[in-house]
């Protein structure tokens, strides 16, 4: 059944597949109403304008002129600005007292706020991104709650399934606008590392004392800092590969403060000459392959420094753990044996107790000592592995030794991994 035909004088047909497209076409010209010193950005119905300067009265006049123009355009084209949703932010690094701008829209003073969200990014006056990172951490922790339910050590979901859920629910949030908030201080960004580490522990089932570098290698997930750098470089080349992108080119205006200063004038000339260089066009897919290779190389260099890491001996190359065709319980135990941190050998770190000592060998109880060194288990090793002292990479390699868990079960170590 169809509704009756009628002429729509204004607005867009609700529910139509063309509604958003028609709206975008209609509102797109609003950017053209801005005066030269005022710039703006528009995403569907999210619109912001901004003006930079050292003279507040000049900035206010320019913004007020821009508001008058776009208000006149809106009245003419059937648009209405929401006064309640309109906010003003004054970005400034000055520490002393300085007045906030007083800007009007439809006769109402626009409230000046210290924080405001635009396209999912919580902006603050100093652009520290501390509020955004704090809010992002809370949202990611809520998403991790689902992963906690599904990642039981005994009956939980499979390794690959948990990894896909983590990437969809948590990493997608961490990646969004990371090229923007990635400029925050390291101390601010480090608060997100705990989210990343907790997610990787839930996926792999690693013991709580496991080194974070081992978690990265086992799951095949980059450290967040490397991940943000990769996203930033990828965005740069995405812009450079599209000559029609608004960010592709910038017009260099002379800096008045440089005029008359010989060294600064030479620097300006050098910048302008560099901009005349025509770089060869490289397709984005080709850049992606090179970028992945370079990021992987950087990650490998970090992993090469972890010479004392227990996992490094077994897995000297970065990558990801390849789970065997076992249930969740066995795969968790296999991960812990790989990393070298188990409940039996490392619970003392959580309870402030002395490290467990082998009474036979007078050596610390480690995964290496139990699987390949302790003399008391020689007969069991010969029975299951054919030798008294097999190498650790022989037992935990890819794939692990067929009789590994038969040996572990016989020596009574299965329940305390």
TrEMBL record:
InterPro entries: DNA/RNA_pol_sf (IPR043502), RT_dom (IPR000477). Pfam families: RVT_1 (PF00078). Keywords: Nucleotidyltransferase, RNA-directed DNA polymerase, Transferase. It comes from the Eukaryota. PROSITE patterns: RT_POL. GO terms for molecular function: RNA-directed DNA polymerase activity. Residues 1-123 form the Reverse transcriptase domain. Transmembrane segments: none annotated. Coiled coil: none annotated. The keyword RNA-binding does not apply. This is RNA-directed DNA polymerase from mobile element jockey. It comes from Araneus ventricosus (Orbweaver spider). The lineage of its organism: Eukaryota, Metazoa, Ecdysozoa, Arthropoda, Chelicerata. The gene is jockeypol_115.
């Amino acid at each position: 059944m169809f509704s009756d035909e009628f002429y729509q004088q204004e607005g867009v047909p609700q529910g139509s597949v063309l509604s958003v497209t028609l709206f975008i076409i209609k509102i797109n010209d609003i950017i053209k109403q801005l005066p030269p010193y005022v710039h703006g950005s528009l995403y569907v119905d999210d619109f912001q304008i901004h003006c930079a300067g050292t003279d507040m009265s000049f900035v206010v006049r320019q913004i007020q002129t821009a508001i008058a123009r776009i208000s006149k355009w809106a009245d003419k084209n059937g648009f209405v600005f929401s006064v309640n949703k309109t906010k003003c932010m004054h970005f400034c690094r000055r520490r002393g007292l300085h007045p906030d701008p007083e800007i009007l829209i439809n006769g109402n003073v626009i409230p000046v706020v210290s924080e405001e969200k635009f396209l999912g990014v919580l902006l603050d006056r100093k652009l520290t991104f501390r509020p955004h990172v704090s809010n992002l951490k809370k949202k990611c922790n809520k998403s991790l709650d689902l992963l906690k339910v599904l990642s039981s050590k005994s009956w939980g979901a499979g390794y690959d399934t948990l990894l896909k859920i983590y990437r969809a629910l948590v990493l997608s949030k961490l990646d969004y606008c990371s090229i923007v908030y990635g400029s925050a201080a390291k101390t601010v960004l480090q608060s997100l590392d705990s989210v990343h580490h907790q997610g990787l522990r839930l996926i792999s089932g690693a013991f709580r004392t496991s080194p974070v570098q081992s978690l990265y290698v086992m799951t095949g997930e980059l450290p967040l800092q490397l991940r943000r750098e990769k996203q930033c470089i990828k965005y740069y080349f995405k812009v450079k590969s599209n000559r029609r992108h608004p960010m592709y080119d910038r017009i260099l205006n002379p800096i008045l403060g440089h005029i008359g200063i010989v060294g600064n004038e030479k620097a300006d000339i050098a910048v302008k000459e560099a901009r005349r260089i025509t770089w060869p066009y490289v397709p984005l897919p080709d850049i992606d392959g090179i970028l992945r290779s370079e990021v992987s190389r950087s990650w490998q260099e970090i992993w090469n420094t972890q010479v004392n890491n227990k996992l490094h001996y077994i897995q000297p190359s970065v990558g990801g753990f390849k789970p065997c065709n076992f249930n969740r319980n066995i795969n968790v135990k296999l991960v812990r044996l790989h990393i070298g941190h188990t409940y039996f050998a490392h619970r003392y770190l959580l309870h402030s107790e002395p490290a467990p000592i082998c009474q036979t060998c007078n050596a610390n109880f480690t995964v290496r000592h139990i699987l390949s060194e302790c003399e008391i288990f020689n007969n069991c090793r010969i029975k299951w592995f054919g030798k008294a002292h097999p190498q650790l990479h022989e037992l935990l390699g890819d794939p692990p030794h067929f009789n590994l868990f038969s040996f572990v079960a016989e020596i009574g170590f299965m329940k305390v991994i």
